[in-house]
Amino acid sequence: MIDSKDFEVNFPPSDSVSDMKFSSQADFLAASSWNSQASIDLNVCIYEVQSSGTTVPKVAYTHEAPALCVDWSKDGTKVVSGGADKAGRIFDISTGQSTQIAQHDDTIKCIQYLDQSNIVVTGSWDKTIKYWDTRSYQPVATIQLPERCYSMDSKGSLLVAGTAEKHICVIDLNNPTVIFKQTVSPLRWQTRVIKCYPDSKGYAVGSIEGRAGFQYLEAKDASKNFTFKCHRDDAKNVYAVNDINFHPIYGTFSTCGADGTVSYWDKDTRLRLKSFSKTNGQITSTAFNRNGSIFIYAVGYDWSKGYKHSSVSITNRIFLHAVKEEEIKPRPNKKR
């Protein structure tokens, strides 16, 4: 069950949380949501997480349709977001102003600041990745993808995008305008999430079939590749893996799913370190803060079964979990 000591975020979005990110500079959280009634609610919300665990809503801004992705600039002064209005927006914390910086021909599903401080990359259902210079609000380059972009992540010089039809495109940001390697997901069903390893040597992928896979880029590391089952119950029901996040200190990782559970794992020993659940709702998004001391998870409906299965009984909530070292630290490998 959910840890009774977990803190609940005050004034969460009124619709399902689609994405969450912590600032790398302070304990500020940005959350995007599916809310599409901009006149009633704001669908990108920014919170301050105080040392007591209390959260304080700071500012919010809106898209003209559901917001599906969010990220912070490296210096923590700006937030970028994208959504079903086909627009990418940048919000300046100091001025409180929101400005459009990106435009696609279809929904923007993924957005990220790259390590270069002024470059933002977007992935869209229009089957493209675009790079944007936030100083000029102009596209720097465009990459054509084989299908609609469903998930994307970058770490260091590595950018990985997962698309429809299980395509995975690897891009070396030292040569950012071409696809370095195109492959197919090791999983049998639709890709739900992609996350890069902290050391940029590979990536994790989660799918709608309750399975995750871990892939290394170098051929010499191919023996370390593996897939495993997760987010399945004793009745053999299978649930989507909605998010994967690596701990910034230990490199262990979390998965969350449509079964309403979160698990911490050690990929090197392939052990589950901890698991907890929320019975009324699905876990739609998760994140660790900059030093891994806080883990945040959103409870709501993940839309994996369409609008007909959305229930008014599901309350949209966000919880903060204080991460204990013993539940996230890697376990010794007992194999000899």
TrEMBL record:
Key word Repeat present: yes
WD repeats, residue ranges: 60-101, 101-142
Keywords carried by this UniProt record: Repeat, WD repeat
Give the highest taxon in the source lineage. Answer: Eukaryota
| TM ranges | none
What PROSITE patterns does the database record attribute to this sequence?
Answer: WD_REPEATS_2, WD_REPEATS_REGION
Pfam families to which the protein is assigned, alphabetical: WD40
Q: Does the keyword Transcription apply?
A: no
Its family remark reads:
Belongs to the WD repeat rae1 family.
Q: What is this protein called?
A: Poly(A)+ RNA export protein
Which species is the source of this protein?
Mucor plumbeus
What taxonomic lineage is listed for the species of origin? Eukaryota, Fungi, Fungi incertae sedis, Mucoromycota, Mucoromycotina
